[in-house]
Fold CASP-like protein.
Amino acid sequence: MKAVSIETGKASKAKVHGVNRGISVFDLVLRIVAIVGTLASAVAMGTADQALSFSTQIVNFEAQYDDIDAFKFFVIVNAIACGYLALTLPFSIFHIMRRRAGKSRVLLIVLDAIMLVFITSGASAAAAIVYLAHNGNTSTNWFSICQQYTDFCQRSAGSLIGSFGAMAMMVLLIVLSAIALSRS
Amino acid sequence: MKAVSIETGKASKAKVHGVNRGISVFDLVLRIVAIVGTLASAVAMGTADQALSFSTQIVNFEAQYDDIDAFKFFVIVNAIACGYLALTLPFSIFHIMRRRAGKSRVLLIVLDAIMLVFITSGASAAAAIVYLAHNGNTSTNWFSICQQYTDFCQRSAGSLIGSFGAMAMMVLLIVLSAIALSRS
């Protein structure tokens, strides 16, 4: 009986380790997807630039991402998040090899939660401005600029997609780390 | 020797349980602080309203939070977060009594992470608009409205404090849950 229970215990331990390894592999994949998302967002917004065709020699009508501070913040935050995610890849690989790594998982949850706040704040601030650029606001006399700068508006709105995707990945990463912690 | 090791094991188990109970009590306190923060933010922004003294009988110059969609979103998100935090108080009390509750802690981490995204997005979108209202933007011809609506601007900027405080509390709550999970 004892031998059987030891065997069963070993089998269930191996199963738990197998599941944890699966979680760690998924963690690595999510991080790579989030790197691509934040990088694409930073590049798409950073290269958004439109000169209007009726520009005169005296006054130049041109819209660039760094005219609007929220967009500048968005590019900086996404670049930082991309760098952070690249730096955490070794941790993720370490977790695939060593399945019991409680402390480093807790550290990753802490850093991931802080980075989630950064990415979300950048994306939301940019989204608020993109919304304003599209719709304008009559009460405050801020008029829509998207009738003139159509390409710039489309580019800046599109660049939000990668960042919002990365946000979802970060939430999933925190959840996966929590599940792995509760199983180890 | 065996008796000694069992005793030591019991003592260390009791210590771990004591630390986890401390974490759970801290979790409860943080949730209450975050409830106060989100409620104060929602109320402060929701009651922000300023009529200018030179209002005529024909045209009424008045600024309210629901003139700006980002502020409406901010109030809704803070109200939802406040309700969510109140609903999770029983979980927190349950964790103080039962120190080994892996599954409910993982569930709380998932929900807390999602709520952190909501609070952060509301606060950042509102912050982007408050920044614009204060500084304006010459490239897009959006002028500062804070020279006219001073009280409204101060109130809306002040209401961000509670929400940013709640954001910090939510990050701490996720970290505490992760530490408790790694110890149980």
Observations:
- Strands of chain B lie at 49-51, 62-64.
- The two ends of chain B are 26 Å apart (CA to CA).
- The interface with chain A takes residues 63, 67-70, 102-103, 105-106, 109-110, 113-114, 116-117, 120-129, 131-133, 135, 137, 139-143, 145, 167, 171, 174-175, 177-179, 181-182 of chain B (CB under 8 Å).
- The mean pLDDT of chain B is 86.
